[in-house]
Design goal:
Length: 360
């Protein structure tokens, strides 16, 4: 466990994870160390506290940490930090990276961070935060990565989150968020990864999400979303992964070739109410798709042989890893799929011309 030097007679220069400079911090946030004695009055020049992960640290974060006003990088992950975050941490006006994932911190995120212009990366995942979703996040104009997965945040995701034009990764999976998804995205949003799965969100899919032209990964599974797939989504050009499973979505998929189909690698829409013929032919000539999970819907169609051939393990990077459909009579005919009969997985293969079923 990385505790070398801490709370010993050694100079803080040799305490694990401490970087700083009695005269301030360089652009890289590293340089020298504040020694005991002559520089004791300059402790506020510590600019990096990096305890890494899994050090068996426990207890509350002291409010005195807020006195380290030059702090730029703070990391204590996968330990046993308890209690709430001190409001005094908002004094860290130079902070650009804040990593405290995998602890036992509760309450909310300090409102004193409001308007921080440096903060770009926040990992508070796998804690016990249980407040309404903090509006303070929407005021961090240079925020690029927010990971708040696996907490207990409540309330709605504010529309103001779409004002964060630099935001690239937003992971809010496994919380208790409610209400509608924000629908004010535009072409200036740099969002690439939008994940809000396993919450209690309702309402339609936001049509303006398709305006975010860099979006690659959308995960909205296990909510209570309703309505059709917006037609604007058919114009997605860079989308690679779309997970909409276990909602209450309806409607049909367009049969004509669309940009939406060209780049998809993973499509999971199982356990909804989609209906009509599924356009397998739009995936027949692409070598990118690896996951098609379509079961527990009301879809129809025939899976072409060319798609089934892609399940061959020898195909390596172009292999179709998962292909799951409903094989009930009048639904999807497939020789190679993982089949669901009456909504139950049967691992059933239909052998055409022989009328034989195989159940694993």
């Amino acid at each position: 466990n990385q505790k070398q030097g801490w709370l010993t007679g050694e100079s803080e220069c040799y305490w694990f994870g401490i970087d700083g400079n009695a005269r301030g911090c360089g652009d890289d946030g590293v340089g020298g160390c504040i020694a005991r004695g002559d520089f004791v009055g300059d402790y506020d020049k510590i600019c990096r506290l990096d305890m890494g992960r899994l050090n068996n640290l426990y207890g509350n974060l002291p409010s005195e940490l807020g006195s380290l006003t030059e702090m730029r990088y703070f990391e204590i992950q996968d330990d046993y930090i308890l209690g709430t975050l001190p409001q005094s941490l908002g004094n860290w006006k130079q902070l650009h990276t804040f990593l405290i994932g995998g602890n036992y911190i509760s309450g909310g995120f300090p409102s004193t961070f409001e308007g921080n212009e440096m903060l770009g990366t926040i990992f508070i995942d796998r804690n016990r935060f249980n407040s309404t979703f903090p509006n303070v996040f929407s005021t961090l104009k240079n925020l690029e990565w927010l990971d708040a997965e696996q907490n207990g945040f409540k309330g709605s995701l504010p529309a103001s989150i779409t004002r964060l034009k630099r935001l690239r990764i937003l992971n809010l999976n496994n919380n208790s968020l409610t209400g509608y998804l924000p629908d004010k995205w535009d072409e200036n949003n740099l969002i690439e990864d939008f994940e809000v799965a396993n919450n209690d969100l309702t309402g339609p899919l936001p049509p303006t999400l398709a305006n975010a032209k860099f979006l690659k990964d959308v995960r909205l599974s296990r909510n209570q979303l309703t309505g059709d797939l917006p037609t604007s989504y058919y114009n997605f050009e860079n989308l690679e992964e779309l997970y909409l499973d276990e909602n209450m979505l309806t409607g049909e998929f367009p049969q004509t070739p669309e940009p939406f189909y060209d780049g998809l690698q993973e499509l999971s829409i199982h356990s909804n109410d989609f209906e009509g013929p599924f356009p397998f032919e739009n995936f027949e000539n692409t070598l990118r798709v690896k996951v098609l999970e379509l079961q527990r819907n009301n879809l129809e169609g025939v899976v072409p042989k060319d798609i089934c051939d892609r399940k061959d393990p020898s195909r390596a990077y172009t292999r179709l890893v998962s292909l799951a459909v409903d094989c009930d009579e009048g639904k999807i005919d497939c020789d190679c799929c993982t089949c669901y009969l009456n909504g139950t997985r049967a691992n059933r293969r239909r052998l055409r011309g022989r009328g034989e079923d195989i159940t694993n």
